Amino acid sequence: MKGKKGISLALVLMVSTGLFGCNQSKETKGHALGKTTEEISRTIEVIGADYPLTIKDTTTDETVLEKVPEKVAVISGTPLSIWYDLGGKSICSSDISENVKLVEGYEEEIKSLPSVGPVYSIDMERIVSEKPDLIIAQYGTQGTHAKKLREMGFNVIVTNVKTYKDVVDTYIAFGKILKSEESANKRIAELEQKKAEIISKLPDQETSVVILYVTANALSVKLNNSIAGDVSNVLKLRNIASGLPVDTIGSENTPLDIEYIVQENPDYVFVTSMIASNEAAKKTMEEHFASNPAWRSIPAITEGRVIYLPQEHFLFNSGPYYSEAIEYVARSIYPEIYGEVDGWYGK
Questions:
Q1: Do domains 9-34+203-338 and 45-197 have the same CATH topology?
Q2: I want to staple 181 with a disulfide (CB 3.0 to 4.6 A). Which of 45, 175, 190, 255 is the partner?
């Protein structure tokens, strides 16, 4: 999209002593952590044309279901929306925050479900007391709980709905479990059609991005196995962090390295967040930009090419509405082709 600027010695020194950044090269960081790329996204698979069905989940554990489960506890927001979209019901859920996009027509029903606590700290006794036929949990955050519940003899499926492929695979799996394959195929076709329409209009040019991730206490960079990374890949945007090492095993983040970002000079800066609200995320990120002069060496920041991605699509996977996440970024990068985000989003 544009030429890359050289980095003067003074700038490198300034970045090296900045408030954020680990000041390691791509190669050095890879050797330090012993891993040079993010982990491949796991998926879910249902084996069998009809009941009994064997479900091989994200953890590769297998669960055999003899019949359509009647008492299901879906304890995470994204699979909950997909489950309800296919006609399923849940006897409880984890706390549902305002930044989780729920499937239309079931918002109030889902919000009124008995809560088993925060998604990362569920009340095991409450779940056990419900005596569910099936528990659908979230990979990572609820992994320990899922393992304990499985050891107690419960049927447990662990999902990891991050990427577009994860959404499609989850629809296929849930469609089989609920005997709602026709509805699942219809939703998948709608998602595919919308994605194809957006991709067909992409300009023939390389556009690079960096995806920052801000929380109340930290700042890091998203990899390709994150929601924003996957959407960038769909839109053929080059994530400059692609191939960098994960900060911990199984993560979708890599440590912040401002020097590397300056060197790569991305065309756009995306900001994703896990913080009180979208507004709080923007305020916090702007404070980061103002506090360290190194950020002002990145033209995308000084020239206003910073895009704040809404939590309802990029903190949590919006499942049935994943194509909206793709369109949000497409409109943000190429408004001359897809139209402005303002006036479209939230309508």
A1: yes
A2: 175
Nearest to 41 by CA among 174, 165, 187, 206: 165
Rounded to whole angstroms, the Cα distance separating 121 from 51 reads: 33
Distance CA(232)–CA(265), nearest Å, equals 17
**CB of 136 within 8 A of CB of 73?**
yes
Q: Any residues with CB less than 8 A from the CB of 288 and at least 6 apart, and which?
A: 20, 214, 219, 295
List helix spans (H) across 17-122.
26-33, 77-85, 107-111
pLDDT band with cut points at 50, 70 and 90 for residue 25 = very low
> CA-CA distance, 221 to 15, in Å (whole number)?
17
The Cα 120–Cα 224 span in angstroms is 23
Q: Report the predicted TM-score, pTM, of the whole model to 2 decimal places.
A: 0.88
Q: Which of 86, 152, 84, 146 is nearest to 119 (CA)?
A: 146
Q: Where are the domains of the chain?
A: 9-34+203-338, 45-197
Which pLDDT belongs to residue 346?
78
Q: Are 82 and 174 contacting, i.e. CB atoms less than 8 angstroms apart?
A: yes
Q: How far apart are CA 157 and CA 146, in angstroms?
A: 8
Q: Which CATH number fits domain 45-197: 3.40.50.1980, 3.40.910.10, 1.10.3210.10, 3.40.50.11540?
A: 3.40.50.1980
What average pLDDT does this structure show over 118-137?
A: 96
Class of domain 9-34+203-338: alpha beta
pLDDT tens string 117-126: 999 999 999 9
Q: Is 282 left (phi over 0), alpha (psi -120 to 50) or beta?
A: alpha
User: If you write DSSP's letter for every residue of 118-184 in order, what string do you get?
Assistant: -TTS--HHHHHHH--SEEEEETTTTHHHHHHHHHTT--EEEE---SHHHHHHHHHHHHHHTT-HHHH
Q: Tokens at residue 132, please?
A: 């569910």
| SS3 assignment, position 322 | helix
| CB burial readout 33-53, b (16+ within 10 A) else e | bebeebeebbbbebeeeeeeb
